Every structure is written in C-alpha cells, then in structure tokens.
Amino acid sequence: MKHSTTPHTRRGRGPARRIGRSLALVLPVVLVLSGTLAVTHVNWSGNPENSVLAASDVSAAGASTRADRKAAHEVLRDQLLTELQREDPGVALTHLQQAVDERPSLARHCVSLARALGRAAVAAYGPTRAQSYARPVCDTSFASGVLAANG
C-alpha cells in the first residue's frame, strides 16, 4: 500500500468553506444593523404620536424623560407641602400614596417626599400632633421625617 506524500486536507477549499467564512463576516453586521433599526423604531417615549423616532432623536428623548421625572417628583412635593398647610398631613400622605400607585416611577422618590412631609408637619403642627398623622406610607419615612425635625 502506497501513501501519498501530499496531505489531504479540506481546509481553505471548497464552496462550503467559503460560504461559511462569508456568513461569519456578514451575519454579525446584519444582526447589529437590524437590532439598531428595531430599537430606533420602538416607541420609547410613551407618547403614541411619536411612534417612530430617528436614531438622532433617541438621546434627546432619553434626556427629556429624565428631566420630566425629576420635575414630576419636585412638582408633587410642592403640591403635597401646600396640601399639608391647607388641610392636614393625613390628606397629603393619602395623596402621596395615590400618586405613587398611579405613577410607579415616583416610588423611588417616595421616601424623600414622605420625610419632607414629616419635617413640614413638625414645623406646622409640632412634634406630638405631627406624629399622630404617621402611617405606613413609603414604609415609615413620614415618622422618620418627624423624628429628624424634632431631634
């Protein structure tokens, strides 16, 4: 039996190998482009009017929604503090709970809002009366605000 001196390898030869290499180069590019296009066509703003965003609008839309969230909790805090002065801390705490239930994005600000209400209640009603309005809105943040203003 005689063996050939030339090695029989399939590397680098044949149409299957060339197609595989082409796919290995082209497929990742296609996936990235299709993913990018899909992300830019999703309505991330929450506004049904703007169902298609240009790729350049994505960063601007993200910046405006962050500013809106910040403004929303500050506006809510001002409303609640005004309510606390006009009505009583119990009404303000009820409206805080309702606002967090309606807009879950406000939940991360709930603790600071409840503490601000607690401090304002001490200033308006004194520590003993302010503590009487305490209830488990945002855990015990209102009570801790009363304690911080009292101590």
Report on this model:
This protein has 151 residues and is mainly alpha-helical. Helix content is 68%, strand content 0%. It has six helices and no strands. α4 packs across α6. The protein is rod-shaped, with a radius of gyration of 31 Å.
Quick structural summary:
The chain is an all-alpha fold and 151 residues long.
Essential attributes:
mainly alpha, single chain, 151 residues, 68% helix
Largest sheet: none
Low-confidence stretches: 50-59
SSE-based structural type: mainly alpha
Q: So what's the overall shape?
A: rod-shaped
Radius of gyration: 31 Å
Give the fraction of residues assigned to helices.
Answer: 55-70%
- How many β-strands, per DSSP? 0
User: What amount of the residues lies in strands?
Assistant: under 5%
Oligomer: single chain
Name the helix and strand elements from N-terminus to C-terminus, one letter apiece.
HHHHHH
